[in-house]
Structure formats: structure tokens, C-alpha cells
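User: Can you help me understand a structure? I only have the sequence.
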Amino acid sequence: MINKVSLLFSILPLFCFSQTLTGIVVDKATQQPIETVAVYFDNTTIGTTTDSQGEFSIDYTDAVQSTLVISYLGFEKIFVSDFRTKNNIKVELVEADNALDEVHIEYDDGLTRRQKLRLFRKEFLGNSKFGKSCKILNEDDLVLKYDKQNKALYASSNVALKIENKALQYEIAYDLIDFEINFRYANLNTLKFTVKSVTYFGTSFYKDLNDSSKPKTLKNRDQVYNGSVQHFMRSLYNENLRNEGYLIFYDGFGVDEWSYFSVESLVDSDFKKVTLKEKISILYNKDFQSELQLEIDEFYIDSYGNYTPIIGLYFGGAMGSQRVGDTLPLDYGISKI
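Assistant: Let's start by predicting it. Here is the structure, written out as C-alpha cells:
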């Protein structure tokens, strides 16, 4: 199965100089400021909300390479990728055209809502002990559809999903943009399913819960990090895959990783360009096996594990089975000053 997305090693602190972005959010139609608008860097713990004047101030470091997201219920979401070139911005939100609220519609597609929820939870949150510790607090907002002809399950939501990850002590606001499970085999009578592929993406904001600093939580977070896509990408950027516990195989044989991967520094950029010659297998810590295949010519990564584009990098095995319940924010392990 492939997943498209998407210790105890100690993580060395990465010290970065802080910068501040300020702005104001208004209703485009009335030009009135909007209070409590969510402003956050996608897939991080860095976020804030607008005050009664619609104003916000948010700090970030060089580690933040993800898009700034501005989100408010009932309005179209705004994405700002060139925030580094701005000091103060004005954001005009446009009311969303949601003429039909599909949340409460039941679809006669061969599966009950309960059955579809079970499939969704498993493939969205994950089947690991971390995924199983997660709970979606607003499941009623999910719209779930099963396509019998194409053997596919689709999910959507007009509002961000609120996820509580007890094992990792995060509360995650996940704004689901697209979700699709394609089944290789599906029997609606016996409820037996074999997953062919899972595709999902959206924007997310992480918030620490009360027990986030407890030793058990820190140990769980370290366990999730090691062998993850995030850990692999950081190791690939630093060209120290072997030192971090990764071995590369091709056609069943161990190979020199740098005869398959090419990592090239770019002028005036924090990113490096990566190419991969063939589909390879990745063995982490001599125990966890994954596969990586590219359907694009190249991709780009930075030292914090950010990579782009996401579509076109296909992970299988251990990395391919990682879901929302097995993920950490992009700023994990990075000290902010």
C-alpha cells in the first residue's frame, strides 16, 4: 500500500533568529475588522488569533518554511507564501459560498455512516498505538461518501476537524482539503477491505495539551519522530542517512545511497534539490522497512524536513503507514529565540 502525502536519538536544538509579521484581517464586503480569525503557519505549533480590531502579530524563524494560513468559519481561507517579503499585511476575507450544508445528508451508498467512520478513522488517524489514542471531537461535521463502482471512500468537512492525540499530547485543528481511500478489494457483505492507496492533505495547527512536558509524552514524541518521513528528510538534507540509522536498498541489495540520491545546494536558497534514480527501499534501525518512489523529476527539502512538492513522492511500508496520529509539527525539535 502506498501513502501519498505523507529513540532515542536526541534532537539537537536549531537556534534561529525570530522575525515578526503583523497585519489586519477585514471582511472584504464591509471592510470591517474580524475578531478571532485563526492565523497560523501550516503544520506547526506557531499561531495566533486576531484581536477586537482584527489585528494580529505572529513571530517566526528561518525554520518556518510552510505557508501562512488565515482561516475563519464561513469565509474562504487565505494562504500567504511570500510573508518573508512583508512586514505588515492587510487580508480581505471573502464569504464562502456554501449554499448546501452536506453534513446532515445521509448517502445510500452501501455502507452505514458508522462503517464509513470506522474506515476513515483507521486510514486518517492511523492504526498504530498513537493513532488509536486519537479522538476526533467533531465527527458530526464529516461528510463521508462511498463510491461502489470505483471502490473508493471520500471525506470532506466544512470546518476544521478537532483531533485530540492523547499519546502525543497534541490538540490538532486539521482543515481537510482532500481525502480518498482506494480499495483493491471491497466486499460490502462481509465488510472485508484491502486498501490500495490513501491520499489526503489539508492544513493543520498543533497545540500542546496539559501533559505535553511529561517524560512519557516526550518519549512518545521521540519514538514517533525516529524513522518518520520528517526524520528521513532532515537526514537526507544533511547527507547523514547512515549516521541517523538509514540504509538504502535497491532490488533487494544494499547500495551506496549517494549513487541513487543526488542532493544539490541551491544559490540564495535554504532548500536543496534532490533527485532519485530509481525506486528504493529504506531500512531504518535495521527493523523498519519503507519504500520511496518518485513520479516527479526532483523535489526540494530544507534542514527542518520541509519538502515540496508533496504530490509525486510516494512512500510505502513503515513510512507509508504513518497517518495524522503518527505526525509531529514541522517545528518539532527546533528551539525558538
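Now, to help you interpret it: The longest strand covers residues 170-187. The longest helix spans residues 113-125. Let me know which part you'd like to focus on.
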